[in-house]
Amino acid sequence: MTTIDVPAFYRQWAMHSGGVFDAATGKGHGTLEEARLAYRRFFQHTFPAPDGLIFDPVDADGVAAEYANPVDAIAGRHLVYLHGGAYIAGDPQGYRGLAGHLAERLRARVLVPDYRLAPEAVFPAAVDDAVTAYRWLLAQGVAPGNVVFAGDSAGGAMAVSALVAARDRGLPMPAASIAVSPWANLEHTGATMSTLDGIDPSVSREGLRRAADIFLGNAPRNSPLASPVFADTRGLPPVLIQIGGHEVMLSDAVGLAARLAEDAVATRLDVAPGRGHVWHLLAGHLPAADKAIADAVAFAEEHLPAGPTG
Question: Is the pLDDT of residue 250 over 70?
Answer without folding.
Answer: yes
